[in-house]
Fold:
Amino acid sequence: MAWLSVTSTTTGLDSMINIPVEDTLYIEHDISDRKVYAFTDIDKYYLPGPLNFWADALKAYGFERGDRNLIIQISKIKSMSRRPFCCAYFALTPKAIKVELSEQNYKRIEKLAAGFNEGIVLF
Structure:
């Protein structure tokens, strides 16, 4: 099992904790505060370093670029939509966590996600 060493704050003043890579839904670079965050279905964590590093390091674990500020774990996608925006959803509920994908990456992500999850819902 692979782990990510993260903190719950951007200052790093709290202690590092390890979260399983497979629990991570997506990792995002927040342009407004120039930080990289890892998201699970229950929490948000801070990761040190640039998103490009994490995109390369986590490719072997099924992460792909959703857009220039986002990498997503393909196996966690449960549904996808093109309207009103290109989105990937991590559950099949009305309040599911979702991320917006770039138009150019949508088709590629759709094919990859269908390979992991034959029951993926497209709408």
